[in-house]
Model the fold of this input.
Amino acid sequence: MAKYGKDPRAIGGLVRDAEVHRDVYVDPEVFDLEMEHLFPNSWIYVGHASQLSKAGDFITANIGRQPVVASRHTDGSIHLFYNRCPHKGVKIASEPCGNTGKFFRCPYHAWSFKTDGSLLAIPLKKGYEGTGFTDTQANDGLSRIKNVVVYRDFIFARLSENGVGFEDYFGESLSTIDNMVDRSPEGKLAIEATPIRYMHTCNWKMLVENQTDTCHPMVAHESSAGTAIKVWQREQGDSKETPMAVQLYGPFMSPYEFYEQSGIRIWPNGHGHTGVANSIHSNYSDVEGYLGQMVAAYGEKRAHEILGEVRHNTVYFPNIMVKGAVQILRNFIPIAVDRTLVESWVYRLVGAPEKLYERALMYNRFINAPTSIVGHDDLEMYERAQEGLKTNGNQWVNLRRLYERGEEPDVTAVINGTSERQMRNQFHAWAKYMTMDMDQPVEAAE
Amino acid sequence: MISEKTITDFIYREADLLDTMQWQAWLDLFHPEGRYWMPLEWQQQDPVLQPSLMYEDLLLMKVRIERLAGERTFSQKPKSRCHHLLQAPQILVCDPAAGVFKARTSFLYTETRGDALERFSGWASHDLVQVGDELKIRLKRIDLVNFDAPFGNIQLFM
Done:
C-alpha cells in the first residue's frame, strides 16, 4: 500500500523543524521515491577526471539506481551516458574503469558507439532500412546525460533535464573542493588508488548525518581512539615523536568543548561542514619540504591561507563527504533502504611529498575500511538504529540540539560545532529535492 | 634446527591461538618489527603508497586486541569468534643458514558474531625469522581472493 506515492504533502510531513519521521530510514517506498526524485534532481558525484586521463578511458557509476558510464572522447571532452545499449539494454561497460579504445562495442550483438556516444555501426544494418529505425531513440546511440559539470576535475551530473543549476546548487560549498585541489603545489589531484569499499546494512542518510555529528566521536570511538591513546601512553617509552597512527586516532577523543568552538558552517541546499576555526586534522606533524613547495607555488600569504583552512568533514548534499585536509572523498551509495555501499577514495596531491599521500591512505584504512576499529563502532550504531527504528513507540528521530525557533532554511551561517543544524539543513533540502518535480512541491527551488 | 615441519607447526599453532582467542600468546609470535598486512590490490607490492585494508605494527595490533576486551567496545557486544581452516602450508623457503623462512597457506576463514556468519577465502603468507631457538613473524600477509569486494565488519585477525 503506497503511503507516500507522489504526494508532496505526505513526503513533506516526514520532516518537521527539528525531527524526522523514521520512515525516511526504514520505508522501502520512501527509498524508491528517493531513487526516482531526490537523486535525479540533485547533482551527484560521478568520478574524477584523472580517472579518464586518455581518450577511450571510461568509468562506471550509479546515480541512484541508474547505471551510467563516463568516457573521455578523442577530442578530450568528457561525456556521460546511461550505461545500456539502445538495442536490448545490455550494459556496454561492466567494469569500474578501463579503456575501450576508439569505440564501445556491445558484447551481445556488436552494436558499436563512438566515445561521444553516437551510433557507429550495427551489423547487417540493411535489416533496419525502411523499418522506421531512424525515428527511434536507438538511432541516437547511447542515451546521453546533458547536465554534466566538471569542476576542477570533479565530475558531477544531474539526471533531471530541468532543475537547479550547478553553481546555484553548490554555491560557496565548492570552497572545500577548491581547498583540497589548492593543497597540491600544482593545483592538481590524481586518483591512483582503488577505493576502500565497505558495505553497511543501514540507510544511506545515517552515514551522511554522522559526518557532521560531533557529539558521537568521544562516545562511540572511545573504544578505538581512547585505547590508541592509552596504549601509546603506556608503550611510548622515550619516544619524542607521536607516531602518525596515534596522531590520526587521538583527536577523535577531543572533548565536547573542542567541537563546540571549532564550529559548523551551513550552506543552502543541504551542504555544510564541521571544523570551521580548526579541526581534528589541525595538529598533524608538518611534512618536510611541503610548505616550501606551497610557498614557491602560491607565495607566502596564499600558501598559509590554503594550509590554514583545515576543515573537518564537508557534506555535499545528498551523498558525498569531502575531507580537504586529508584528501579523501566518501561516496555513500544507496543500494536499498537498509543497504549502503561506502566507497572511500584518496586523491594524491600532485607534486606534493609522498608522505602526505601515505598519511591520506593510512587515514582511509584506519577510519573508512571494513577492518577499521573506528568504522566498526559506527556501523554498530547504524545497524542498531536500523533495527531500533522499527519500533512504533516513538516514530520520530530527534534533531533538536541547539535548535532555535524560526531557524531559516537555505542560509549560510557559522554556528556552534555541536549543533545538529546541518542535519536539519540536510532534511530541509531532502524534502525540497524529493518533491521539486511533483505538483505542489514542498518548496520551490530558489 | 628449524625444519619444514617446524614452520608448518608454527603456522598451525598461530591459527589455533587466534581461534582460541589467546591474543597475548598470538602477539608474542611477532618479531618486534613484525607487521600484519591485508593488501587491497592484486599482487600488491607496496603496503604504504598503495591502499591496504590493514598494515599494522605491534602498537596497532595491541590497540586492536585491547579494544576487543573494552567495556565500551559496542561492536563487540556480543563478541566475535573466528575459525581458521588451513590447507597444508606450502614451504617456499626454508634456509636456516640464511635465516629465511617463507610459507604460503591457503585458508578458509569464518568470523561470526551473534547470528551473523561471514566466510572469507584467501592465502596467508608468512615471512618468519629465527630469534634464539624460536620462529617469529616478520610479516603476515593476507590476500583475499575477493580483496576488491565490499565487506561488512571484519573485526578479528585472519
Chain A has two domains: 45-154, 171-435. Residues 171-435 of chain A form a domain with the Naphthalene 1,2-dioxygenase Alpha Subunit; Chain A, domain 1 fold (CATH 3.90.380.10).
